[in-house]
Design a protein that fits this description.
Number of domains of chain A: 2
Shape of chain B: flat
CATH class of the largest domain in chain A: Mainly Alpha
Largest sheet of chain A: none
CATH architecture of the largest domain in chain A: Orthogonal Bundle
Oligomer: heterodimer
Number of helices of chain A: 11
Strand order of the largest sheet of chain B: 1-2
Helix content of chain B: over 70%
CATH superfamily of the largest domain in chain A: MetI-like
Shape of chain A: flat
Number of strands of chain A: 0
Largest sheet of chain B: 2 strands, antiparallel
CATH topology of the largest domain in chain A: MetI-like fold
CATH superfamily of the largest domain in chain B: MetI-like
Helix content of chain A: over 70%
CATH topology of the largest domain in chain B: MetI-like fold
Number of domains of chain B: 2
Distance between the termini of chain B: 32 Å
Structural class of chain B: mainly alpha
Structural class of chain A: mainly alpha
Number of strands of chain B: 2
Radius of gyration of chain A: 25 Å
Order of helices and strands of chain A: HHHHHHHHHHH
CATH class of the largest domain in chain B: Mainly Alpha
Distance between the termini of chain A: 41 Å
Chain lengths: 288, 330
């Protein structure tokens, strides 16, 4: 059908077709430029505005009182690491375990269900996971706490880790498994000592990408970890986080807080982008 | 559950069945039984979490559901003081911002995908597609931060220009308080945020279009654009639609960036620059301040609606993408 249309056009309006083609090429190249422009603009703005505000105090001091210059967000840097650690425990253990289940037990009747649910979980908005963690851990404890924040981030991580693990483990050729069985190894040792090590780089990549992804999440933390202006190492009390700092400080009316927000944005973006970039570079090379 | 998992077919092992070789023995070693159990329990957690999420949302939203019934979806008043809650303004806000973002974002995303997979030389294609994916790595709050301090002033300028122009001032659709925060700003930010999702799926499905398809069209004397238009894009259509739905799912649930730039006014949006709220943004904005049971329950009910819609959209997207590309993609 489209072939006929093409043939019908072949003899007619050659110049017009050329012009259309050139126009399309320009627009497609233009689209690529337009798509990349915001990235460049955002990075330039963050570096330009944030870099002057990053000093040692940023990482070592607590926020100055509203409106006063100086201060840092040390508690949020530590808090973010704390939340990430909590999230990783949940996200990686359950995520990798489920990934192994889905990839290595294809005959199990639960596999299709688990796969569909994990696909469905990927689409659940982070803020909804925040409500779930709120209901599970904030309501019973009667106050906001870091644990619930870590749990909400962990829940968000799980499906990403499942998918990454599943995909790389299925790439391990069956010959490798056969070799293990031929040596008389039981299945658990084949999986743990042969399949997982050969898929390790892919699993690590997936895990790190999932961590980078939740490191920047603020939505589920608003009413779980809540944020904190002071030091707190107790996961059962409110815990600060960089994304929360960026949110609260950029909607505040104080210039000094805007500066801290820009510095925090820069730190967060550098952290996320460098992690993503490094992982891709390191593991993409090795995979080839 | 330590029941050994047996493969139903008695055929000699080939392909996938190899993973079952160890199961040929009647009694499994203790290690295997333990390992099976652990893995099964961990996978069970995924089922449990999904069930818990649904349960908690339903439980939390139930009081509002009972109190307002179906009127919750059609009510336009959101008044915490008089405890009257209707979610229509947010449903409208979510739909308008999401589809607005798709309208702007999808053509650009498909264009960028075409550029990367069909037009650009390899040395250019790889870095460009990598950079597009980096857009997805930037946290939502950072988009919001940029929106407040860079985009909003620009939009405010546009609003002021409209206000000054005698011809445009009269148009109700464009009338607004020039704050720079509102629907338009939210749509632009959202469009930027969903582009990487739509674009990377489109790029992947474009790569799956068989080379024959292009060569046949070229052999008929088609120009490059005609090849794209008649031979490549129709072939990739289902997959691209899947990517669009995936980005729709993202857009519907996007919270922080939208909350920071949309103005957070709990009324149905009026005009292109009007201040409004979305389902996600109203939760982010009011959840910690909700003091009455009805208010909190209404917010959770909004969360439940969002949960159901996004799950549905995502599953349909997966089906579309999987159908086109059974192996490896997405």
């Amino acid at each position: 059908m489209s072939v006929e249309r093409l043939r019908a056009r072949a003899g007619t309006g050659r110049t017009r077709r050329r012009v259309t083609d050139a126009l399309a090429t320009t627009m497609i190249a233009g689209a690529a430029v337009v798509v990349l422009t915001p990235l460049v603009l955002i990075l330039i703005y963050l570096v330009g505005r944030g870099i002057g505000s990053i000093d040692l105090a940023f990482f070592t001091q607590l926020p100055a009182p509203a409106g006063e210059a100086g201060g840092g967000v040390a508690q949020a840097v530590v808090g973010t690491l704390e939340l990430l650690a909590l999230a990783s425990v949940i996200g990686l253990v359950i995520g990798i375990g489920t990934g192994v289940f889905v990839a290595e037990y294809p005959e199990h009747p639960l596999v299709p269900t688990v796969r569909v649910l994990s696909d469905a979980l990927i689409g659940v908005p982070a803020i909804v996971m925040g409500i779930v963690a709120y209901a599970l851990l904030v309501v019973p404890l009667r106050h906001f706490n870091g644990l619930s924040g870590g749990v909400s981030l962990g829940f968000i991580m799980i499906p990403y880790v499942v998918r990454a693990t599943d995909e790389v483990m299925r790439l391990v050729p069956n010959v490798v498994r056969e070799a293990g069985f031929a040596l008389g190894l039981p299945r658990w040792r084949v999986v743990l000592q042969i399949v997982i090590p050969s898929a390790a780089s892919g699993i690590v990549t997936g895990a790190m990408l999932a961590m980078a992804r939740v490191a920047g999440e603020a939505a589920p933390l608003l009413f779980t970890a809540f944020g904190n202006q002071y030091w707190n190492f107790d996961p059962l009390k409110p815990v600060a986080a960089l994304p929360l700092v960026i949110y609260t400080y950029s909607i505040s009316p104080y210039d000094s807080w805007h500066r801290l927000a820009s510095a925090a944005s820069l730190v967060l973006v550098v952290f996320v982008l460098v992690t993503t970039l490094l992982i891709r570079l390191v593991f993409a090379r090795r995979a080839r | 559950m330590d029941r050994p998992i047996r493969h139903p077919s008695p055929d000699p092992p080939s392909g996938k069945d190899v993973r079952d070789l160890s199961r040929r023995r009647t009694r499994l070693p203790v290690g295997d039984r333990l390992f099976d159990l652990i893995v099964l329990l961990l996978a069970g957690c995924v089922l449990l979490i999904t069930a818990l999420a649904a349960f908690e949302l339903i439980k939390g939203g139930a009081p509002a559901m009972r109190r307002y019934g179906i009127g919750f979806l059609t009510g336009t008043t959101w008044d915490p003081v008089h405890q009257e809650f209707g979610a229509l303004p947010f449903i409208v806000g979510t739909l308008v911002t999401s589809f607005g973002a798709l309208l702007i974002g999808v053509p650009l995303a498909v264009g960028a995908a075409l550029f990367v997979s069909e037009y650009a030389p390899r040395w250019l294609a790889e870095p460009v597609s990598y950079l597009v994916e980096l857009l997805a790595a930037i946290p939502s709050v950072v988009y919001g931060f940029w929106g407040i301090f860079v985009l909003a002033p620009v939009v405010r300028g546009i609003q002021l220009d409209i206000f000054r122009s005698a011809a445009l001032r009269g148009i109700g659709f464009l009338r607004s308080t020039p704050t720079g925060l509102g629907l338009f700003t939210a749509i632009i930010i959202l469009a930027v945020m969903i582009i990487p999702y739509a674009s990377s799926v489109a790029r992947d499905v474009l790569r799956l279009v068989p080379q024959d398809q292009r060569e046949a069209a070229y052999a008929l004397g088609a120009t490059r654009w005609e090849v794209m238009r008649h031979a490549v894009l129709p072939y990739a259509r289902a997959g691209i639609m899947g990517g669009v739905l995936l980005s729709l799912g993202r857009a519907l649930g996007e919270t922080m960036a939208v909350t920071m730039v949309i103005g957070n006014r709990t009324a149905i949006v009026h005009g292109l620059f009007g201040q409004t709220a979305t389902m996600a943004s109203v939760i982010a904005n009011e959840f910690t301040e909700a003091t009455t049971r009805a208010h909190l329950s209404s917010l959770i009910l909004v969360g439940l609606i969002l949960f159901l819609i996004t799950i549905l959209v995502n599953l349909v997207a997966r089906v579309l993408i999987r159908r086109l590309a059974p192996e490896g993609l997405a």
